[in-house]
């Protein structure tokens, strides 16, 4: 049985003259990844502040590792909780290494000077978050994404028992957000550090969390596994709009979308393009094809890939594979059936490695079915597979009739030409 890390017992909390949370009770076990979800203003950040003892409950008790947070000294709290700040305010003079070493302050000797162990822990935190190369750079000169990784390194150096992160005010773009989330997931899975995460993205929180806590108007209205909490009726009531929850039949993952976005694109050309993408290569490509009037399907994509996010935003029919896993037989089969229904297959500027090489089978099979196949140029620069297998494979595909494309304009022209040449080409 896992230890209990955090407990709220009938907690009501808020600000001067403004009660926000009412009678909240839950507990979090060691190693769990918990996401707090709920509409704007429902009290998610207030709950995080109460959990990290930035504000004290008006009634009820918050317990951290078995101790009432009110009774903990700041230095004890700092050793238990790592709160990832959205922005570190740093004067010009601080280097990344110095900022990360800040995470060690509560553990340093009483003279406040770092010892060999502190240096060692700070260095390991920087390696883990991939900021070691930046250690001598001034923090203020870094990009937003790099600064977020440094903030994580600082918190990791603290060696906390629980990490709390509020993404509500995060200004990171999709790629950087995912980078930070991946590090957070690794920390949780590999180091078994408990995570309490405030999220606005319901599908993503379902993806990465063991349990969800759903708040509405300051009350905890549901808590449980993503499947238990993400019920369309309940969500529609809480968010006060019509929402639907779809479950991917192959991977079991949940996707929440609004009734508005659930309308598929009109596909006025009555032609479907199946796109093999990944690594952000689909973001512009999908939109361009939709704008030109094609229906678009895509896959297999890694679930945490920015293209998966783009496909979700555009409500494309996409086949997704679990994060960090090579593409398996089931998702490949699902993508194959999408390819069979499509009229054309387009391979975007996707980098290939051992994990996604099997996607090239779809192009091979599309050609065998006499479907026009279009492959983005420059495979040599983006082929990271052993023995340059993707280059060899696409060479074979070109020899069998696959066409090359350079710019998106080229691709659109080639598709228009194919339409004229193969007017009968339909399923
Ligand atoms: N420092 C504060 N003083 C007074 N009221 C506050 C303070 N911070 C937040 N509030 C109020 O408390 C309520 C809950 O805010 P909170 O930030 O916890 O919600 P949230 O669910 O995190 O919202 P969002 O999703 O928009 O970030 C809101 O009505 C907000 O205006």
From TrEMBL:
CDD domains linked to this entry: ABC_Iron-Siderophores_B12_Hemin
Keywords: ATP-binding, Nucleotide-binding, Translocase, Transport
Family matches, as InterPro entries: AAA+_ATPase, ABC_transporter-like_ATP-bd, ABC_transporter-like_CS, P-loop_NTPase
GO MF assignments: ATP binding; ATP hydrolysis activity
Domain ABC transporter: 6-242
Cross-referenced Pfam families: ABC_tran (PF00005)
Superkingdom of the source species: Bacteria
Job description of the protein: Part of the ABC transporter complex HmuTUV involved in hemin import. Responsible for energy coupling to the transport system.
Protein name: ABC transporter related protein
Originating species: Chlorobium phaeobacteroides (strain DSM 266 / SMG 266 / 2430)
């Amino acid at each position: 049985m896992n230890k209990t890390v955090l407990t709220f017992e009938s907690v009501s909390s808020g600000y001067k003259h403004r009660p926000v949370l009412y009678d909240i009770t839950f507990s979090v076990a060691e190693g769990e990844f918990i996401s707090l979800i709920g509409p704007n203003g429902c009290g998610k950040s207030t709950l995080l502040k109460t959990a990290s003892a930035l504000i004290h409950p008006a009634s009820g008790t918050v317990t951290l590792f078995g101790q009432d947070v009110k009774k903990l000294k700041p230095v004890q709290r700092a050793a238990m909780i790592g709160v990832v700040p959205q922005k570190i305010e740093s004067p010009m003079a601080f280097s990344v290494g110095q900022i990360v070493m800040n995470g060690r302050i509560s553990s340093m000797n009483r003279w406040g000077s770092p010892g060999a162990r502190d240096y060692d822990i700070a260095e390991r935190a920087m390696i883990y978050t991939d900021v070691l190369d930046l250690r001598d750079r001034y923090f203020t000169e870094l990009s937003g994404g790099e600064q977020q990784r440094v903030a994580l390194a600082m918190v990791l150096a603290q060696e906390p028992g629980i990490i709390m992160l509020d993404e509500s005010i995060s200004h990171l773009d999709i790629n950087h957000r995912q980078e930070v989330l991946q590090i957070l997931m690794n920390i949780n899975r590999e180091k078994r550090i408990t995570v309490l995460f405030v999220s606005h993205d319901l599908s993503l929180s379902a993806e990465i969390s063991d349990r969800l806590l759903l708040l509405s108007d300051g009350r905890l209205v549901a808590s449980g596994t993503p499947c238990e909490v993400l019920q369309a009726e309940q969500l529609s009531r809480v968010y006060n709009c019509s929402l639907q929850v779809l479950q991917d039949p192959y991977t079991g993952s949940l996707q929440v979308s609004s009734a508005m976005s659930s309308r598929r694109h009109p596909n006025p050309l009555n032609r479907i393009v199946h796109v093999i993408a990944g690594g952000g290569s689909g973001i512009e490509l999908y939109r361009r094809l939709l704008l030109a009037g094609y229906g678009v399907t895509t896959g297999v994509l890694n679930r945490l890939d920015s293209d998966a996010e783009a496909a979700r935003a555009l409500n494309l029919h996409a086949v997704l594979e679990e994060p960090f896993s090579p593409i398996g037989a089931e998702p490949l089969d699902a993508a194959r059936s999408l390819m069979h229904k499509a009229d054309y297959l387009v391979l975007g500027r996707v980098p290939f490695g051992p994990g996604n090489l099997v996607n090239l089978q779809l192009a091979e099979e599309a050609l065998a079915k006499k479907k026009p196949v279009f492959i983005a140029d420059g495979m040599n620069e983006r082929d990271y597979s052993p023995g340059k297998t993707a280059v060899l494979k696409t060479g074979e595909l070109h020899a069998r009739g696959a066409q090359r494309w350079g710019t998106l304009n080229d691709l659109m022209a080639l598709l228009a030409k194919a339409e004229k040449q193969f007017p009968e080409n339909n399923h």
